[in-house]
Every structure is written in structure tokens, then in C-alpha cells.
Design goal:
The chain has 418 residues and is an alpha+beta fold. The protein has nine helices and 27 strands.
């Protein structure tokens, strides 16, 4: 369907066309690009070809070093841009296909590019929207009878994270130091976290935004959801366990959050929408929507220790396991009049399914450290060691093509001793 060759198992098919920010050695300026196959289309090089009724007046957004200005243009601008891209990259359109000079300037091999954060992230919110995950953690800490807190089935629970420590895939993560209380009969101690963990998550970027005091109704929520990325919300469980009562996560979470560099537009994911989870009790009216906004996205987590020759898969899950939808998350976030802005990042919370192999954290996989996670070759883990490399991947599978996300990867560095 495109004049650019795309292998069937490539994440970046013609049906995908995700947005990112990249630079190259010969041109260190950060610029917007679209991935297709093993190539990147430099949008700054083809900006003059966007001649639709909206984008003809806003071609300058493709000269920006982040996606913020483009995301701020809103829903109709995104739709028009995608249609133009599909036309430019199609096998039947000659404007780019037959212009050798333009192609040489506009197409960059992904192997020659350095990827950067796709947006200037003003605010980051993390939800807690997997029922299986919330139940597992509740059983561990409160017992089966009190696994879910009374509000969990009534609203999308969330907390405000730290945007400054959101990093792009490939950035190393330093093991944090902090207070822990391993012995409940003794005072807390200070030192490097001994329970470093991963959290398999996905997140979406807000586009458009709303004015302070004006909620986004659920009927309009989709017009403010620009696209999705993979996320690893690294967690120091021993620091978190000591600090989180009564106000929730703080130092156990804010030392690092990794996202994949390519933002998959929601229009590319809509063919993979599935019926939403059955919610009982029925949510309040402001949170109700019947249109499917849960997605069949296959998710995988692998771990490779410094002494391992191959990575071991430790989790196979799916985004369809989510209880609360992204529309419900965004609507609830703004129902009190909170304003969100283009480039804000809203995350799903840990994605766990009903089976042990689908648990999206090592806390669950090792059941709070009570059993070992088998990595093969005699290697095991309960939590992460220094030097461990964690890679999250995900894709939607179409007929003969994929809509994938590329890797979300990070390696644990030793703590800086105080």
C-alpha cells in the first residue's frame, strides 16, 4: 500500500504512521517525523505538501522540536494530517514517490536517527485502572476480603506523578536511595532500594486541552486523546511501602518513568477496539459511554541480566484487560474543572491480566518476593538487579500487518551512595 517496503512483522506499517521527534548526526536539530517501515519521514522537509483547509494555515508546527504545537491544533487537524500522510506515502501518489531530490531530503533511515521525548510534558498523571492488578496488590497488603478499596469500582483512581523524570526509551535508570522499614519492629533505615520493580503500562498524550473550570464531557473525550505510547513506571517497592500512607506514591515512583518514542495515533488503533469491560456497579452518568474504547494490544516484558546471553520473557499481557477506559480517565480527571494541556501524559497504571503470566509487575510475578521468577539457565529474580535491562514491546495484529509501538527499554544503574 506504500511505495516504501514494509515487512509484515514490522511495527511501523502503512496502517500505523506514528509520530516522533528525532535528530541525526549530520543534522542535530530536533524535528518531527513519522515512522514507516525502517524509515522516518521528516515532516519539516515536506511541510509544504500539507495543503488541507486546516494544515495549510499551520504548516509551521512541523518545524517545531516537539509535538506540542501540533497536538494543540486539535482533532480535525490530526485527522487531516493523517489523510495527507496516507496519500503522500501511498504507492499510487507520485508527489514524494517520484521526486528523487525530495525523497533524499525527507526520508531518513531509523538506524541513523536518535529518538527524543516526543513532547514537552507539562504534567503527568498515573491511574490505577487494572482490576486484576489492584486486586492482587490489595490481597498482598490487606487480605482477600479487603482487596479493593470502596472507591475503586466507582471511579478511576489516580495520582499526580513527576513529569521532569519521564525519559525516552534507552535512557538508563539509576537505582534510587530512600527510607525503608524492612523490620516493622525497628525504626526505618536509609539506603539503596532492594526491591526495584517494573510496571507494564501504557499512556496517552492529551491534545487540544480545556479551559480551567470547564470539564471535558465523555462524549468529547476522544477529541482530546492524541495517541498512545508504551510505559515502564519504575517503582521502588520498599520505599513505596513505607511512604505511601496516607498520601500515596512519592519517592518510590518519581525517580524515573520510561516511555517509547513513537506516539501511535488513536485512528490507527481504532480498528482494534473491543467492547469495554463490564463495570459493576454501573458508573455514575458522567463516566458512562457505550462505544468500544478498549484495545486489543499484545504486550510483552522481557528481562536481560548482565550475565545473560538472551533476554527472558517474564510477562505476556494485553491492554484489553483494563477496567477503566481512557475516556473515563480523562473525563474524571477534568470533571472538577482541572485543565489539561497539549502534551500532558496520562498513564493506565500497571496492566495485569487474570493469569500469573500476565501480571505486569515483579511485585505480582514474585508475589511480594515470596517466589522466584524463572529466567532460564538457572537465573532467577524476585526484583531487579543492577545491570538488568527491561524491554517492553507491544503491537496490534492485523491481517498481514502490525500496528506496533517499538521498544520501551531501560537498564538499571547502581545507586549513588550517600
Amino acid at each position: 500500500m506504500s511505495f516504501i517496503r514494509v515487512e509484515p512483522d514490522c511495527d511501523f506499517s502503512f496502517h500505523n504512521l506514528p509520530y516522533g521527534v528525532f535528530s541525526t548526526a549530520d543534522n542535530p536539530r530536533r524535528r518531527l517525523g513519522v515512522a514507516i517501515g525502517d524509515q522516518i519521514l521528516d515532516l519539516s522537509a515536506v511541510r509544504s505538501l500539507f495543503v488541507g483547509p486546516v494544515m495549510s494555515r499551520h504548516q509551521d508546527v512541523f518545524e517545531q522540536p516537539t509535538l506540542n504545537a501540533f497536538m494543540a491544533l486539535g482533532y480535525e487537524a490530526w485527522r487531516e494530517t493523517r489523510r495527507t500522510l496516507q496519500s503522500l506515502l501511498s504507492a499510487n501518489e507520485s508527489a514524494l514517490r517520484d521526486d528523487v531530490s525530495l525523497r533524499s531530503r525527507a526520508l531518513v533511515h531509523q538506524s541513523a536517527a536518535t529518538m527524543h521525548l516526543p513532547a514537552d510534558i507539562g504534567d503527568y498523571t498515573d491511574f490505577y485502572s487494572s482490576k486484576d492488578h489492584a486486586t492482587n496488590v490489595g490481597i498482598m497488603f490487606r487480605g482477600k476480603e479487603n482487596a479493593l478499596m470502596p472507591n475503586w469500582l466507582r471511579l478511576p483512581v489516580g495520582y499526580h506523578g513527576r513529569a521532569s523524570s519521564v525519559v525516552v526509551s534507552g535512557t538508563p535508570i539509576r537505582r534510587p536511595c530512600g527510607q525503608q522499614r524492612p523490620d516493622q519492629t525497628k525504626p526505618p533505615v536509609f539506603g539503596p532500594s532492594k526491591q526495584m520493580d517494573i510496571e507494564l503500562e501504557m499512556a496517552f498524550f492529551v491534545g487540544g486541552g480545556n479551559q480551567l473550570g470547564e470539564p471535558i464531557p465523555i462524549s468529547k473525550a476522544h477529541e482530546h486523546i492524541f495517541g498512545m505510547v508504551l510505559m515502564n513506571d519504575w517503582s521502588a517497592r520498599d520505599i513505596q511501602a513505607w511512604e505511601y500512607v496516607p498520601l500515596g506514591p512519592f519517592l518510590g515512583k518519581n525517580f524515573g518513568t520510561t516511555i517509547s518514542p513513537w506516539v501511535i495515533p488513536m485512528e490507527a488503533l481504532l480498528p482494534f477496539a473491543e467492547p469495554n469491560a463490564v463495570q459493576d456497579p454501573e458508573p455514575l452518568p458522567y463516566l458512562q459511554h457505550k462505544d468500544p474504547y478498549t484495545f486489543n494490544i499484545n504486550l510483552f516484558v522481557s528481562l536481560k541480566g548482565p550475565d545473560m546471553t538472551e533476554a527472558a520473557n517474564i510477562c505476556t499481557s494485553n491492554f484489553r484487560y483494563m477496567y477503566w477506559t481512557m475516556k473515563q480517565q480523562l473525563t474524571h480527571h477534568t470533571v472538577n474543572g482541572c485543565n489539561v494541556r497539549a502534551g500532558d501524559l496520562l498513564a493506565s497504571g500497571t496492566i495485569s491480566g487474570p493469569n500469573p503470566e500476565s501480571f505486569g509487575s515483579m511485585l505480582e510475578l514474585s508475589w511480594r518476593g515470596s517466589k522466584s521468577i524463572d529466567l532460564g539457565g538457572g537465573k532467577t529474580r524476585t526484583f531487579l538487579n543492577d545491570g538488568d535491562k527491561v524491554t517492553i514491546t507491544g503491537y496490534c495484529q492485523g491481517r498481514g500487518y502490525r500496528v506496533g509501538f517499538g521498544p520501551c527499554q531501560g537498564t538499571i544503574l547502581p545507586a549513588l551512595q550517600h
